[in-house]
Amino acid sequence: MAEKRTLIATIADEDTNTGLLLAGVGQVTPETHEKNFFVYEEGRTTKDDVRKAFEKFTSERDDIAILLINQHIADVIRGDVDGFTDAFPAVLEIPSKDHPYNPEKDSVLKRVRRLFGE
């Protein structure tokens, strides 16, 4: 099952996605023309849009190994992010240019702290 998972997907703002695409993360599937990135636009992208992108990358696609999501966007769908417990894809929260990383909000770190009884 894990051998099919070769891509990194992103749900991020334009600046973060641009940097990651320039680094070579971008992929468009030849058959369906699906992108492995979703651009969040402040004030234009709805909570439902973010939820649909998260659902697509975590449940519908079987080629995604890692999902990178800006932490401030993860906050928009915090319940979905915290509730996702599957091994694949690994969901990692990352900072953006305008929103610093807050380890207290990170769902992975919360789970680790619970494991260690903190």
From TrEMBL:
Task: Please provide the record's keywords in A-Z order.
Answer: Hydrogen ion transport, Ion transport, Membrane, Transport, Vacuole
Q: Classify the protein's membrane topology as the record does.
A: Peripheral membrane protein
Which Gene Ontology molecular function entries are recorded, alphabetically? Answer: proton-transporting ATPase activity, rotational mechanism
InterPro entries on file:
ATPase_V1-cplx_f_g_su, ATPase_V1-cplx_fsu_euk, ATPase_V1_fsu_sf
- Where does the UniProt annotation locate this protein? Vacuole membrane
Q: Name one GO cellular component term.
A: proton-transporting V-type ATPase, V1 domain
Entry superkingdom:
Eukaryota
One matching Pfam family: ATP-synt_F
PANTHER family, alphabetically? V-TYPE PROTON ATPASE SUBUNIT F, VACUOLAR ATP SYNTHASE SUBUNIT F
Role of this protein: Subunit of the V1 complex of vacuolar(H+)-ATPase (V-ATPase), a multisubunit enzyme composed of a peripheral complex (V1) that hydrolyzes ATP and a membrane integral complex (V0) that translocates protons. V-ATPase is responsible for acidifying and maintaining the pH of intracellular compartments.
Member of which family?
Belongs to the V-ATPase F subunit family.
Q: How does it assemble?
A: V-ATPase is a heteromultimeric enzyme made up of two complexes: the ATP-hydrolytic V1 complex and the proton translocation V0 complex. V-ATPase is a heteromultimeric enzyme composed of a peripheral catalytic V1 complex (components A to H) attached to an integral membrane V0 proton pore complex (components: a, c, c', c'', d, e, f and VOA1).
The name of this protein is V-type proton ATPase subunit F
